[in-house]
Amino acid sequence: MDTMRSFINVLVLFSIHKTNSENSFKSVPVTVKTYENETVLLPCYVDDTEGPLRVRWYKDTTLLGDSMDAHHLLPPRVRMHANYSLQVDSLVAGDTADYTCEVIRPEPWGPIRQTHSIEVQYSPTVKTIPDDGFVEVRKGEYVDIGCDATGTPTPVVNWKKNGEPLALLEPRSRLRFKAEHRLLAGVYECRATNGVGDPVTADIRVVVLDAPVVIAERSFVHTAIGLRASLAAHVLFAAPPATHAWYRHGRPVRTDDRVVMMVQDNVHQLIFRTVRKSDLGNYTFRAENKLGMADVQFKLTGVPNVASFKVEHALNKATPVSFTLVWEVDSYSTIIEYNLWIRPYYGRLSTEPDSFTTEAPSNRWVKIVVGGDSTEGPIHSAVYTVRGLTPSTVYEAIVTSRNRFGWSKPSAILHFATEPGAGRQIPSTSDYSDVSPVLEELEPEVHNISQAQVFEHVSESSVGARETSTAILILVAILFFCIS
Ligand SMILES: *[C@@H]1O[C@H](CO)[C@@H](O)[C@H](O)[C@H]1NC(C)=O
Ligand SMILES: *[C@@H]1O[C@H](CO)[C@@H](O)[C@H](O)[C@H]1NC(C)=O
Ligand SMILES: *[C@@H]1O[C@H](CO)[C@@H](O)[C@H](O)[C@H]1NC(C)=O
Ligand SMILES: *[C@@H]1O[C@H](CO)[C@@H](O)[C@H](O)[C@H]1NC(C)=O
For 276, what's the count of Cα atoms within 13 Å in the CB-facing half-sphere? Predict the structure, then answer.
């Protein structure tokens, strides 16, 4: 008997174990992705040949209905069919949930359950943070903006600033950053996408307040008596709005029929219809708001503009001992003379411990005076052949020009090289990139070297620094000889 009972228990245990698994359902769990107003039918299909079953449906953990309890009212839009399927009509967002069908069977079998899901899909919507889509901060303050996106499935939010995608490590709905620069201002656009319907976008305008930013379109303005001249200041940034004024010698410029102010597209001009000698001089344009001010300086002058060397292979004739330089200068008055400054080019000086000398080579500029022309201009061209140079050597040159108003600022540096040939050779370096030439006898000036460069010949020779100094002395001597 005992053996028999044990056997039955084992059988029962076995059955419970077996029927507890979802295998006894003839339906399979489903996830229904659907849309608003649709109808969904969730199955709860089990073998009920052994008599009627008791079925309960749960939405997440809330009991919806019970097949044996007619008094339990199903919520509106929800029905349970005779075959235990659950039907939900006219779907709304709130119907997105897990739905569990629980089958309660006669003793000794326990309940079995199967869970389905409904996902009511909605195209995204966004709400900006702040609501009005407008943020104004002072420079250095924090900007905190966002886009609350809703929709099913959960939308992904991406950003653009002024039309350019922002490279964020991962999509996010909130942006918080320090407005460290006025250029962080702009229109931030968020775009929410979830694959349902069209993506939606919303804009947030971020304004960064700071002192104004102004640049001079040309700070050195060349003119001559009787001509029209204009000084132009470009206000790049003014938030909050700035007030503007032109000053001369600390006092506001007095305008009349001849001297007028004009403003167009943030460009402020001071126009001299016919320049008088008394107009020449320094001017200041000032933009000012409550966070600060910006000054830009101008010089209205009769002295020539900065000359520029021309790089044209047909004209820049090189021999082992000479080189022909060509330059141009704008001047409304006759050029009286040019000063051409020449020196061998060494690039970076050696700092090797085994170099022959710790003395820098005497790399001084040599001045050559070149006569002007008699033309009125405004464009003056000059050609000059420098002689007595060393073969296979790189030189640098600068030119200044003088008219009756005075000397121009120095030109950009030109690098040029002589042809290879017999004779002594001065070493030169092939590394020209980090040279910062210094003008010794002229006022220092930032030169834009890329404007004029001739690198046709790069000498490969390497001679000790002591020989170099000697060679320079010879060169300097030759140059002085040429000039005199
Ligand atoms: C669903 O029905 C409501 C009410 O009739 C309607 O306003 C809504 O636009 C419908 N939604 C869709 C996605 O058709
Ligand atoms: C259950 O009944 C409903 C309504 O009669 C029917 O539409 C559905 O197909 C039935 N489901 C199964 C699995 O038989
Ligand atoms: C004009 O400004 C320059 C510096 O930009 C200064 O060297 C010069 O002395 C000023 N001239 C006058 C007349 O103030
Ligand atoms: C130098 O001049 C070139 C050509 O005029 C310009 O493109 C470049 O921006 C200038 N560089 C600097 C540092 O001014």
Answer: 4
| Cα–Cα distance measured from residue 465 to residue 357, given in angstroms and rounded to the nearest whole number | 7
Query: What separation in Å is there between the alpha carbon of 80 and the centre of ligand 2?
Result: 10
Cβ atoms < 10 Å from Cβ of 12: 12
Residue from 436, 446, 451 to probe ligand 4 pocket by mutation (most atoms less than 8 Å from CB): 451
Distance (Å, whole) CA 118 – CA 97? 6
pLDDT tens readout for residues 275-295: 999 999 999 999 999 999 999
**Which ligand ends up closest to the CA of 46?**
2
* Sequence ranges of the domains in the chain: 25-122, 130-207, 216-299, 308-483
C-alpha–C-alpha distance, residues 166 and 410, integer Å: 44
Across the beta sheet with 267-272, the strand order is: 213-216, 229-237, 267-272, 259-264
Which CATH number is associated with domain 216-299? 2.60.40.10
DSSP 310: -
Which residue CA neighbors atom 1 of ligand 2 most closely? 83
Same fold for the pair 25-122 and 308-483 = yes
Q: If you ran DSSP here, which 8-state letter would residue 182 be given? A: G
Q: Is the CB of 446 under 6 A from ligand 4?
A: no
Nearest protein CA to atom 4 of ligand 1, as residue:
37
pLDDT beneath 50, residues of the chain: 1-23, 348-359, 424-484
Distances (CA, A) of 183 to 139, 190, 236, 389: 10, 19, 11, 51
Q: Which helix (H) or strand (E) holds 58?
A: strand 54-59
Whole-number pLDDT of residue 156 = 94
Ligand 2 pocket, mutate which of 28, 40, 41 (most atoms under 8 A from CB): 41
Ligand nearest to the CA of 35: 1
Predicted local confidence at residue 59, as pLDDT: 96
For domain 25-122, which CATH number applies: 3.40.50.300, 1.10.260.40, 3.30.70.330, 2.60.40.10?
Answer: 2.60.40.10
Please name the residues in contact with 116: beta carbons below 8 A apart, sequence gap of 6 or more: 29, 30, 31, 32, 42, 43, 98, 99, 100, 101
Interval 72-100: pLDDT, tens? 888 999 999 988 999 999 999 899 999 99
Distance CA 35, CA 424 (A): 90
Q: Name every residue whose Cβ is closer than 8 Å to that of residue 106 and which is 6 or more positions away in sequence.
A: 50, 51
- What would be the CATH architecture of the domain defined by 308-483? Sandwich (2.60)
CA of 330 to the centre of ligand 4 (A): 19
Atom of ligand 4 nearest to the CA of 449: 1
Six-digit token pair at 195?
């694959």
Residue 300 one-letter amino acid: L
Ligand 4 centroid, distance to 441 Cα (angstroms) = 25
CA distance 465 to 467: 5
Is 130-207 in CATH node 3.40.50.150? no
